[in-house]
Specification:
It holds the Pfam family adh_short. With 260 residues, the chain is an alpha/beta fold. 46% of the residues lie in helices and 15% in strands. Helix 1 (18-29) packs across helix 8.
Length: 260
């Protein structure tokens, strides 16, 4: 299926590993030029090597919580590629805490990260997206936005707020810019590999350990998702092929949700 991405320019925040890296690779494979950013220069250099480099890829160290850094990223993107058609807001991480254990400083940090990692890039790149004939924003959110977990109370609340923001933006920025989100469940990543090394019983392979966790989590598809599967959903929603979709939340979670 031709997604219409040839000649497009996509910016992927948090693009140095995991879902962000897989998304950048998928955009490149479909003919787009890609800008990735992250805070760690070494990880970015490693990502560029994994993606094969090339004139259609630019990597830049950028903290999306710093509006001046995001502005420089936008300026450098225009200098390199001349335009921006797509923004993927992917920066962020989870915080394990209950209501009783979450300090005010934790709430401040988590709410700031989840909201402003979307707000700063969207605000900065918006004029460029509005100038495109296919402007699109995709926010990588979590199933926690609709199905909170008590051991992740702070992150769950923040994710719900971000989902509300996505819906508001989809109305305000229409018809020039489409805004959608994906709600991810449990995705195979470096954090799970680290936990495997710390927790798995001797003789249990990584895949066996993941399969056991999938059963414990009651995932109907009986496995974790892979970054490439999440990337496929992101790239589709960002593409002109999804041109009549805005304000949507696409669940990529193996069927684990309990809401209708």
């Amino acid at each position: 299926m031709d997604l219409g991405l040839a000649g497009r320019v996509a910016v992927v925040t948090g693009g140095s590993s995991g879902i962000g890296l897989a998304t950048a690779r998928r955009f490149l494979d479909d003919g787009a030029s890609v800008v990735i950013c992250g805070r760690d220069r070494e990880r970015l250099d490693s990502a560029v090597a994994k993606l094969g480099g090339g004139d259609n890829l630019h990597a830049e160290a950028c903290d999306v919580l710093d509006p001046e850094a995001v502005q420089r990223l936008a300026e450098n993107t225009v200098s390199r590629f001349g335009k921006v058609d797509i923004l993927v807001n992917n920066a962020g991480q989870a915080r394990l805490s209950t209501f009783a254990s979450t300090l005010d400083t934790d709430w401040d940090a988590e709410l700031k990260l989840k909201f402003f990692s979307v707000i700063h890039p969207t605000r900065t790149f918006l004029p460029l997206l509005q100038a495109s004939d296919a402007g699109a924003v995709v926010v990588v959110n979590s199933l926690l936005a609709r199905q909170p977990e008590p051991h992740m109370v702070c992150t769950s609340a923040a994710r719900a707020g971000v989902q509300n923001l996505v819906k508001s933006l989809s109305v305000e920025l229409a018809p020039k810019v489409r805004v959608n989100s994906i709600l991810i469940g449990t995705v195979n990543s470096g954090q799970w590999e680290r936990r495997y090394r710390e927790r798995a019983a001797p003789g249990v392979t990584y895949q066996e350990w993941l399969a056991g966790l999938a059963r414990e989590k009651h995932i109907p598809l009986e496995r974790f998702g892979e970054p490439e599967e999440t990337a496929a959903a992101i790239v589709f929603l960002a593409s002109p092929a999804a041109g009549f979709i805005t304000g949507a939340a696409l669940e990529v979670a193996g069927g684990v949700s309990r809401f209708a």
